[in-house]
UniProtKB/TrEMBL annotation:
Name this polypeptide is given: Acyl-CoA dehydrogenase
Domain called Acyl-CoA oxidase/dehydrogenase middle: residue spans: 128-225
Organism field: Dactylosporangium salmoneum
Family from the record: Belongs to the acyl-CoA dehydrogenase family.
Keywords annotated in UniProt: FAD, Flavoprotein, Oxidoreductase
Listed cofactors: FAD
SUPFAM superfamilies cross-referenced by the UniProt entry: Acyl-CoA dehydrogenase C-terminal domain-like, Acyl-CoA dehydrogenase NM domain-like
PANTHER family: ACYL-COA DEHYDROGENASE, ACYL-COA DEHYDROGENASE FADE29
Acyl-CoA dehydrogenase/oxidase C-terminal domain sequence ranges: 237-396
Acyl-CoA dehydrogenase/oxidase N-terminal domain residues: 14-122
Annotated InterPro entries: Acyl-CoA_Oxase/DH_mid-dom, Acyl-CoA_Oxase/DH_mid-dom_sf, AcylCo_DH-like_C, AcylCo_DH/oxidase_C, AcylCoA_DH/ox_N, AcylCoA_DH/ox_N_sf, AcylCoA_DH/oxidase_NM_dom_sf, Mycobact_Acyl-CoA_DH
Stored Pfam families: Acyl-CoA_dh_1, Acyl-CoA_dh_M, Acyl-CoA_dh_N
Domain of life, source organism: Bacteria
Length: 405
């Protein structure tokens, strides 16, 4: 990593922005990397992640003692905005950087931090999230993967599904049931947060082909997998608290990601031009509507950053943010498909866009992929319906939804 690894918090965020912009100009690949959903593409994205690490930009907001730059929110936002402006490659270790890393910092032991965080930050180790199961998606507490204590190991049996990047990951952080009897009294009890090396005997990973034809998901099977007890993060049987913190990181504000959605609106404007709709009032109305949505989100990110810097509590905003950005993202890509009319039905295959100019063909193919991902985003991390329930009950204080006893 770069020798200059810290950021002077009293310094100018714009000065840091200029530093980042220059580094990205010198290091971002001149040609887009292949999709990360192929082995070749994933390996190239992984090498890019290591380049970020060596430059000191893998996680600028992480504390210095864990290998970050100690960046404040102004600097973090500046980095993200420049990253997306430069059209830098999609990040592929976000499960580790945004989820496991913060969880281990908060709940892990010092030995776990020393063992996992450096390799996570350098992208030597890729992590995936093992929460969802068949029949235990939205109702996460109904999970059935078991871990039985056997001396200084747990023996794990069960299945996880919809595991993002599971086919490329080295480790998985999973929720397992360690006390089935406790679940009879309270279903959130008796769950443990356990980290598992996917190369352990008894682990089988099966990639899943998604609706857009890519293999970004996997299902993971555990058959008598022996996992050291020392891999438990937090306390045994108290994993629900750790899991809720993980989901809070996943649902909460990712400072600077608004720039990604601004790029999407810019791409939509380009698509409108290529369709010959630049003077079409209905198309321009649609473009203006999603532009306003992204600008509202950008303003909200800056508002939350100011709130956090003043010591405000962002926990209550997590579900609001998750609901807004996922619905907004879907709206952007659904709008694009509507404006493409009959061409919006084309499957995202190169042969389906034969005859189109390269820019338009690439836009169509990417638009389909991103549209289907946007559909999934309204499900993972808690569906939009669940987020609305959380907002109504925990933020607005409305009566709770009737639930079966």
């Amino acid at each position: 990593m770069s020798a200059e690894t810290t950021i002077d918090q009293a310094g100018s965020a714009e000065g840091f922005r200029a530093e980042v912009r220059q580094w990205l100009a010198e290091n971002v690949p001149t040609e887009p990397l292949p999709p990360w959903t192929t082995r070749e593409g994933f390996d190239q994205h992984r090498r890019w992640e290591h380049t970020l690490f060596e430059g000191g930009y893998a996680a600028v907001d992480w504390p210095v003692e864990y290998g970050g730059r100690g960046a404040g929110l102004r600097h973090t936002i500046a980095f993200a905005e420049e990253y997306y402006r430069a059209r830098a490659p999609e990040r592929v270790n976000m499960g580790g950087l945004y989820l496991l890393g913060p969880v281990v910092m908060q709940y892990g032991t010092e030995e776990q931090r020393r063992r996992w965080i450096p390799d996570l930050l350098s992208c030597k180790t890729i992590w995936c999230q093992g929460f969802s199961e068949p029949g235990a998606g939205s109702d996460l507490a109904s999970l059935r993967t078991r871990a039985v204590r056997d001396g200084d190991h747990f023996v794990v049996n069960g299945q996880k599904i919809w595991t993002s990047m599971g086919g490329f990951a080295d480790w998985i952080f999973a929720l397992v049931r360690t006390d089935p009897e406790a679940a009879k009294r309270r279903k959130h009890a008796g769950i443990t947060f356990l980290c598992i090396d996917l190369r352990t005997p008894g682990v089988q990973v099966r990639p899943l082909t998604m609706v857009d034809g890519t293999k970004g998901f996997a299902e993971v099977f555990f058959t008598d997998v022996r996992v050291p007890v020392e891999n438990v993060v937090g306390e045994i049987d108290q994993g629900w608290k750790v899991a809720m913190s993980t989901l809070g990181f996943e649902r909460g504000a990712v400072f600077g990601d608004h720039a990604k959605f601004s790029n999407d609106v810019t791409a939509l404007a380009g698509l409108i031009r290529h369709r010959g709709l630049a003077q079409d009032s209905l198309a321009l109305d649609e473009l203006g509507r999603v532009l306003v949505e992204t600008e509202v989100y950008r303003a909200n990110v800056y508002r939350l950053a100011a709130l956090a810097e003043s010591g405000g509590d962002l926990d209550r905003t997590a579900s609001i943010n998750k609901l807004y950005w996922t619905e907004m993202q879907h709206d952007i890509f659904a709008t694009g498909l509507r404006l493409m009319a009959e061409d919006g039905a084309i499957v995202a295959e190169p042969s389906a866009t034969a005859g189109a100019d390269p820019v338009t063909a690439h836009a169509w193919q990417q638009w389909h992929h991103r549209y289907w991902y946007a559909r999934a985003a309204m499900i993972f991390g808690g569906t939009s319906e669940i987020q609305r329930n959380i907002i109504s009950e925990r933020v607005l204080g409305l009566p709770m939804e009737p639930r079966p006893s």
